[in-house]
Amino acid sequence: MEVVSGLPFKFYFENIDSYGRTLPNNLSKQELEEYNSICSEEYNWNSHIESGRTQKLINTFYSWLKENNAITKDINDSNLVYLCESYTPPTYYKNLFLENLSTEVYNKIKNGEIIVIFSWFSEPLYDPDFNENIERICEENNFNVDNFFVFTSANNIKNTSKIRHISDHFFLKNSAEFLKYFLQNKIFKPNTFDYVCEIVNQNIFQQKKEKHFLCLNRSSDRPHRFGLGMFIERHNLWDKGEFTFLLCDKKKEDDELVEAFSYETLKEYTEYKDLFYNKLPIEIDTKFLMQGNQLFNFGTSRIYYKPIYEKTAINIVTETTFSKNKVFISEKTFHPIINLQPFIMFASNGQLEELRNLGFKTFGHVIDESYDDEENNHKRFKKVCDEILRLSEMSIDEINELFLSCKDICIYNRNHLLSFTKYDVFKNSLEKLNKICYGI
């Protein structure tokens, strides 16, 4: 039985609410009872997510499956897939996965008649504890571990488990579509900000830059972002760029920063923790947040405050993850590409290499990009910081010359991003699954 995409899989969903709407798999009896007690024509599962009552999904992958006629409610169909999808790390399913299986699904898994997919496509997730737990469940219940997969946007991972991981780039198509939207419509008026979002055009290369850097951070809780703030504070680089550091739950202790710094290096930064933390929040465009919106709940994918891109030359990207061997290309990477800026990145090793594999170009002719080859987090963090410091010591005229030398690459990268408007992360991943399962 083939779906529209030409692939043989049918995704089985066993839960339906009283209005005939499909619900996520692997729900507990308690979860179902809670939802059914409050659902209505207006209140659906997405409302349930927005209310904070659950983080199990029935939208991102499910929408694609529905469009491609890949859904079944018949447990007797062949080539079945049982999908578990969530915003949260895999541990959300780890402990109760077996308990929440229906008898029918349990037997199908035991007989090797269902493939199980855990999908975390919106995050760069690789969780050894989760993998170990699923392996244990398979062993104890005589499940074939070869029928268990994780779909993730963590690339370049060193998978040591028996649970096979299929990686791709969830944000690539969305970013390409956002760029296409802006090029066609010129502006976007968000319902969270009291300004109109625009992207720069090629006239930007005729304008003189006022500052070296642009670096936008909503959450400063991640070690590499908090560490960057301490670095900027230590070297007094605030006047060299436009920086935002919005949220941080508390000042970070040394053991929370060891992903970016060695304990020895942290001794040099002790006095800068308080100095940086006491400056927060550091805002620019969020001063225009409309009433009722908070620093933690606005979307960032299409939010471009054009003046800060016009006046700055080099984008310092702080990706979601800095961990080694966990490349994640999120919308943060595409912001400078969309706005014609060269960039330097706090990210996993191999991030620039993966961009080049996708056909993008980077800026090794003006920026030392050797940090991308460094697996050691501490050494990679220092290399990026050292290069930022070197660039900061250039005069603004030199920075403008550097920026102009990047013109052709910046224009190429933006045009190349447009080629991904039809990129299909779900179909790509299912084709990889098909090849693994059936050799096709």
Summarize the structure in short.
The chain has 440 residues and is an alpha/beta fold. Helix content is 38%, strand content 13%. The chain is built from 16 helices and twelve strands.
Can you characterise this structure?
By secondary structure, the protein is α/β, with parallel strands linked by helices. It folds into two domains: 10-169 and 424-438, no CATH class; 171-418. It contains 16 helices and twelve strands. It has helices spanning 29-38, 45-50, 60-67, 91-94, 103-110, 128-141, 171-185, 223-234, 263-277, 306-311, 331-338, 351-357, 377-392, 396-405, 407-418, 425-438, and strands at 10-12, 71-72, 80-85, 114-120, 148-152, 164-167, 187-188, 197-198, 211-219, 241-247, 312-318, 343-346. The strands form three sheets. Strands 2-1-3-4-5-6 form a six-stranded parallel beta sheet, with helices on both faces. Strands 10-9-11-12 form a four-stranded parallel beta sheet, sandwiched between helices. A two-stranded antiparallel ribbon has the order 7-8. α11 (331-338) links the parallel β11 (312-318) and β12. The two termini are 15 Å apart. The mean pLDDT is 91.
